[in-house]
Amino acid sequence: MTDQEKLMQQITANRFAMLELHLFLDSHPGDCETGKKLEEYRQSTQQLIEKYEAAYGPLNETPQTASRWAWISNPWPWELSKEDK
Known about the structure:
The protein is an all-alpha fold.
């Protein structure tokens, strides 16, 4: 596994943990410890994303300022050659 894949795996794991904590807080809204843990994961995830984007580029391939249909003009994954990937 490459460093890029490891970093993406950490980001994905943190995002999953954040989702689970959100779901838990839906049924336990007064649990302050879980709220603190959620904030820790949020900060950790943000740091991992910044590290990833500094090394490998943005995670969101379509800029926020682009048209919502801009993805249509990009090549599809199966249209890329091995050199393009």
